[in-house]
Amino acid sequence: MPLPNCPKCSSEYTYEDRDLLVCPECGHEWPANGESAEGEGARVVKDANGNILNDGDSITVIKDLKVKGSSSVIKIGTKVKNIRLIDGDHDIDCKIDGFGAMKLKSEFVKKI
């Protein structure tokens, strides 16, 4: 059975690696079990209380957070508006008044 072409770059040189299909040209990986590639982006980010977060939500910090490379602290109760969800360990990208652009972990915030 021939392997499908890459859904990102349409390369025919895909190969199987355990339970993933991999494209050597663009580096894209997707499940080999027949799930659609659109399902990959459906990552759910939840706050400390289990509420689902979305782009544009407002949140509150639930714990004093040290700012790396600085002696300042983001205090508990700090409100952040218009968040953006990103991939990675720190899954919230936002701007905090008085601090600037920051990346936060969803486990330290709650949805307003």
TrEMBL record:
Return any one Pfam family short name.
YjdM
Residues covered by the Protein YjdM N-terminal domain: 3-31
Domain Protein YjdM C-terminal residues, every copy: 45-111
- Assigned protein family: Belongs to the YjdM family.
**Protein name (database record):** Alkylphosphonate utilization protein
Which taxonomic lineage does the organism of this UniProt entry have? Bacteria, Bacillati, Bacillota, Bacilli, Bacillales
